[in-house]
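Attaching the record inline, Q. Sequence:
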Amino acid sequence: MINIYISADIEGVNNVVYPHQTEVSGGESYFLALKQQHEELNRIVEGLLEAQVDKITINDAHGTMENLHISKLSPKIELISGKPKPVSMLSNLDESYSCVFFTGYHAKAGSKKGVLAHTFSTIFNYIKLNGNLVGEIELNAIYAGHLDIPVALVTGDDATCNEAKDVLGNIKTVSTKTAISTTAAKCKSNEALFQELKSAAYEAVKNHQNWALYKKNPSYVIELDFRDRKLADIIELLPNIERISASTVKFESNNYQEIYKLLQFLSATLFYIK
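Structure, as predicted:
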């Protein structure tokens, strides 16, 4: 049995460069970005079906996580939609899956380059794990690694693909666009991109030797630097949170799920504090 789990973000799809394109309040710009995301996912699914996989699960991993519509996706997939949900971008991922794909991903907060670069939320200036800057690729790969599930494919802009290779090694990637700045990119022809996505998905399944099982052993020290110092004031009230600067807190645990779920909780709640 070959079961594929796809964690689907939107900032890394082709032609998405502005924040308003990723939110329903962006109107027509958002719906065009959503159409692009559906089309990219459907090409990936076509490649997976040609590779004769048994099961494909897509988890809507962006924002409110109700962006994707089952009617616009291949009838061969199942869709996880909505939030809150346990483990957020990787909800329902378990040992029954052979590997995970990260699609439409973006570079980490603190990156010199990368379209719409952030880590889980724009409330953070950066997130460090054990002293190193980390993004969603690495944090999600560690979670999957604890389930012994490797990452097989990453798609996003060129900065995202470079980050994936730096973290995961010889991982299969597809660059959807070339970052020029935080809100500008050189975009690919969809005709070429769609074929590349289909081929990459097929090859990713067939080339097991390039799957990246990524593990980090305890202990874990997560350092969070906030854009708004007031958020650090609030988080400091939680137990076991240590304030280490005006805008920065840290949390230590030997349990990676505690680290991951704290990040999801803060991302989901503090974003709405004014």
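The chain has a mean pLDDT of 96. The chain has six helices and 13 strands.

More tomorrow.
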